[in-house]
Write the structure tokens for this entry.
Amino acid sequence: MRRTAATVIALAFLALGCASTPEVDPNTPETCVTVDNTGGGGAAGRVFLVSDSRERIRIGEVPMGRSVRHCMRRTAFSGLYRLVIEEGQVDRMDPALNQNRPRAFRSDTFTLVPGDHLVWDVRTNRIMLEGAR
């Protein structure tokens, strides 16, 4: 009886784990974003792709003097996006929120279409389209 109950619970967890992982159509074009921080004068920290509806997709970490490329398959991108680098050190105080907030570098806004390959030059704050639309 205990073995049956344990098996049922294990299968339930397995089913929940599989159900929570959405499948992406393998035919969906791959969208890539490159953060070019090689020119210096930029920031080092966590990189996010942020939509105008405030959805945040973590791209990764970008150190000074390096580039980071992140590719993803999503069925639809809609609205405007921007890239944000949040510095790791928390040394600024925001009195309105009464908490420390990391310094952030933000790109200009841009539209993103599945299949795009974008490059953000952090030093000049330029977004360039590398792949064709």
Summary: The chain is about 15% helix and 40% strand. The CA atoms of residues 13 and 19 lie 10 Å apart.
